[in-house]
């Protein structure tokens, strides 16, 4: 009976997902390091670049990256010191502030992305047929929305609104 427990497809699915994720993360981290970025710094920059007006409230950015508010503050501090991000106060709520991608941040991302996309294509998306990739994206969104519903927090909100939580 225990043999069936160890042969469970759910364990296989989780194991394969973990192995693929850690393998891809190692390759991506190496590529980002050649540009002087950590994985979390890249995640912050790409989320800002893909957001309306290239900005997000700090609380939304923390939720999207699954960092604590102090963790996202430290990352944004580092990126601000290097000129890739700046903070802007919310004009209607002194308690809120935005992280905003600077022109230098956009330029850095434009330098990083060609190699990053090439790596993704070589080790991940290029290994799947178009219909497999579409199914995978749909499946990952279902799982992401269940386990991290805050992952898209603030993405569609008008960036000029300064709501508080």
Short description:
By secondary structure, the chain is mainly alpha-helical. 61% of the residues lie in helices and 8% in strands.
Could you please describe the fold and organization of this structure?
The protein has about 160 residues and is mainly alpha-helical. The chain has one domain (about 20-150): Arc Repressor Mutant, subunit A. It is about 60% helix and about 10% strand. It is built from seven helices and three strands, in the order H-H-H-E-H-H-E-E-H-H. A three-stranded antiparallel sheet has the order 1-3-2. Strand 2 and strand 3 (about 95-100) form a beta hairpin. Helix 2 packs across helix 6 (about 105-125). The longest helix has 25 residues, at about 10-35. The radius of gyration is 18 Å and the shape is globular. The mean pLDDT is about 90. It comes from Planosporangium thailandense. InterPro entries: HTH_MarR-typ, MarR/SlyA-like, WH-like_DNA-bd_sf, WH_DNA-bd_sf. This is MarR family transcriptional regulator. Pfam families: MarR_2 (PF12802).
């Amino acid at each position: 009976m225990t043999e069936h427990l160890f042969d469970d497809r759910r364990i296989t699915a989780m194991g394969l997902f973990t192995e693929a994720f850690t393998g891809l993360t190692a390759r991506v981290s190496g590529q980002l390091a050649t540009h002087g970025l950590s994985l979390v710094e890249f995640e912050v920059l790409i989320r800002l670049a893909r957001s309306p007006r290239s900005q997000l409230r700090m609380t939304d950015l923390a939720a999207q990256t699954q960092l604590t508010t102090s963790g996202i503050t430290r990352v944004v501090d580092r990126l601000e010191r290097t000129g890739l991000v700046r903070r802007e106060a919310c004009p209607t709520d002194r308690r809120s502030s935005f992280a905003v991608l600077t022109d230098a941040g956009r330029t850095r991302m434009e330098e990083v992305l060609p190699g990053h996309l090439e790596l993704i294509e070589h080790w991940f998306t290029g290994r799947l047929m178009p219909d497999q990739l579409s199914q995978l994206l749909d499946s990952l969104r279902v799982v992401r929305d269940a386990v991290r519903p805050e992952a898209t927090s603030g993405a569609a909100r008008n960036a000029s609104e300064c709501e508080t939580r």
